[in-house]
Write a structure and sequence with these properties.
The chain is an alpha/beta fold. The protein has two domains: about 240 residues, Thiamin diphosphate (ThDP)-binding fold, Pyr/PP domains (Rossmann fold), CATH 3.40.50.970; about 130 residues, 3-Layer(aba) Sandwich (Rossmann fold). The protein has 13 helices and 15 strands. The strands form three sheets. A seven-stranded mixed β-sheet has the order 3-2-4-5-7-6-12, sandwiched between helices. The chain has a six-stranded mixed β-sheet with strand order 9-11-10-13-14-15, with helices on both faces. The radius of gyration is 21 Å and the shape is globular.
């Protein structure tokens, strides 16, 4: 597809594939799984017809896809893959290897509910299952963001001061299969933003290096501590890359973004495509005179503690909307993170967790209105049950 200064209607999946083409990826190793398949189908087509000069590796499973990505990234190739749901789980053990070996793979995840029961529809179960694997994780709200954030992911992950893999999350079907207007970035601008990949310690027979060697107890803790420090130190480069993106392309992205939150007494907190749906509910409640606002988390890992504390500092009640369950825990995963981030802060708001939208169940603006009313009711009663699931049919 030729670059255009006009917006073109396309699926979020195709918008991601276009970003990979503009990034001039060297290697794509992937296995098809709903609802991710359109991404890699389009990339396979690009490689086959000469739109993208890359090596496309068809593999027998997602585990093999990520394993192939390890080898590709280790020799310094710009590497991309994509998956969803159970496919991400099949990759799970290899994800730790990619981050521990500091390999800047970029992966798009079309988030999907995990079995059982079997579901191909979207929620955040898979994203939360891999939150501790050491990957930078980012959530897109729409197809334009998906396109932009893939370009950003290559820029951040390959920075010699970062060298960590990056996941770009899009909601399965809500974004992967929905056509939206997207401005495809200009190739010359992308070339200015994204320099060639210069992996500093590539595998090469003339300059042997060791990667992923055996780590006995005497050094394992120190290795993990070094990884954690390096991961936390990615934050300034994450912000810097967004600043550079804004200078070249225009849109400004931030780890945490707010909507009508300045004087809000009650704040909804969301992630992903349903944030736009929540904003419609906020508009309606604002028109009714209710002081309600919205906080949207874009950067999930490393967790944006400072930005979250700032965004929530003036609210009386924060209602956290989770799209996954932490079985046996205090509530949804995002709810737990927000509670931990605010612990011990002055004038801490009451935090209420609500879980919904599981397995692709629709969530409407009126559902978000209900969440605000129900969340405030729980907060006012001071109920010890600060998290509950909504929309359960008795």
């Amino acid at each position: 597809m030729a670059n255009s200064r006009q917006r073109v209607g396309m699926e979020g999946s195709i918008a991601i594939a276009e970003a990979v083409r503009l990034a001039n990826a060297d290697v794509i190793a992937a296995y098809p799984i709903t609802p991710q398949t359109h991404i890699v189908e389009r990339l396979a087509e690009m490689v086959a017809n000469g739109e993208l000069d890359a090596e496309y590796i068809p593999v027998e499973s997602e585990h093999s896809a990520m394993s192939a990505c390890l080898g590709s990234a280790a020799v310094g190739a710009r590497t991309f893959t994509a998956t969803a749901g159970q496919g991400l789980e099949l990759m799970h053990e290899v994800l730790y290897v990619a981050s521990s070996m500091r390999l800047p793979i970029v992966m798009a995840v079309a988030d999907r509910a995990l079995s059982a029961p079997l579901s191909v529809w979207g929620d955040h179960s898979d994203a939360m299952a891999v939150r501790d694997t050491g990957w930078i994780q980012i959530f897109a709200e729409n197809a334009q963001e998906a396109h932009d954030l893939v370009l950003w992911a290559f820029r951040v992950g390959e920075d010699p001061s970062v060298l960590f893999p990056v996941m770009v999350h899009i909601d399965g079907f809500n974004l992967s299969h929905v056509t939206e207007p997207v401005l495809i970035r200009d190739q010359a601008d992308v070339n200015r933003f994204l320099p060639p990949n210069r992996y500093p310690l590539p595998l090469h027979p003339d300059r042997p290096v060791t990667m992923g060697a055996f780590g006995p107890p005497a050094i394992y803790t120190e290795a993990k501590k070094a990884q954690e420090v390096a991961f936390e130190n990615t934050k300034p480069f994450i912000l810097k890359a967004w600043e550079e993106f804004e200078k070249i392309f225009g849109p400004r992205y931030s780890p945490v973004e707010t909507y009508k939150a300045e004087d809000a007494e009650t704040l909804l907190l969301t992630m992903g495509s349903l944030s736009e749906t929540a904003s419609l509910a906020v508009d309606k409640m604002r028109a009714e005179g209710k002081r309600v606002g919205l906080v949207r988390i874009r950067l999930w890992r490393p967790f944006p503690f400072a930005e979250i504390r700032q965004a929530l500092s003036r609210a009386k009640t924060v209602i956290v909307f989770d799209r996954s369950i932490s079985f046996g825990g205090p509530g949804g995963p995002v709810f737990s993170e927000i509670k931990a981030a605010l612990y011990g802060q002055p004038a801490q708001p009451r935090v209420v967790g609500l879980i919904g939208g599981l397995g692709g169940r629709d969530v409407t603006p009126s559902d978000f209105e209900y969440m605000v009313n129900r969340g405030n009711e729980i907060a006012q009663k001071g109920s010890p049950a600060e998290s509950e699931m909504i929309g359960v049919r008795e």
